[in-house]
User: Fold this.
Amino acid sequence: MMVSAQAGGLWDCHTHIYGPWKSFPLPDDAAYRPAEAPMTRLLEMHQGLGISHGVLVQAACYGTDHRALLAALAITEGRYRGVALIDGTADDATLQKMHDGGIRGIRFNFMGHLPGERNLDQLRVLVERIKPFGWHALLHGQLRQLLPVLDAWSDLDIPLVIDHMGREEATREPDESRLKELAKHLRHTKRWIKLSGVDRMMKGVPSSWTAAIPVARMLLAAAPERAIWGTDWPHPNVQGNVPDDACLLRFVQDVCGDDKTKEAVLVDNPRRLYF
Assistant:
């Protein structure tokens, strides 16, 4: 598939937006209530870091109401893409409208503090629904939760993206057996890893996050052509201080090391996944 000329440039593959409240208020039963963080602020942050492309991940507090996300995508003229939250009520016309608006994937939340279906049979139905659109499924959870999902879905021939490096804690000795199991799954040509969430892996410890570099490099080595990165701006529900997005970019650049790998993770790989 041909890539448009505007597809070049650095990608931030994980962000959220909240508001503006005047136009897109939260529902009364929101899963959490973050501070307002509209698209205009995200674009300012990206401009400051030299990032020209991004991915908006539907925030759980908005549920399946994608009006804020689609409105934000509409002002970027195709430079940004979206990841949705859907359930069984989404018909083909709804999915087509999302696709036309820039949606390229759906997210499944397995973290206990976030709402969402957990039954793998029902989730598999949703995965089959998105296959004709060429979308991917983003799996968000701790590694101990995600490995059984990857085992159960080993036959699925659509991209499955592991969010936030499987949220394996890096403030202590990581579970090497789980990481090796994930690395084995990542050798599948449709399995991707997102080298994001290092601040969460470090439990909010403010540092250069050097303790997490070996884990990130191990996962990158398992799928160098299917690794992407994101800031997780504006960092909802974090422990400790909100991380500096410039430091997060430097972290992934340190993980990559050479220019060829940086180009793959920050430009080429996301371009293939989202265009």
Q: What stands out?
A: Confidence is low (pLDDT under 50) at residues 1-7.
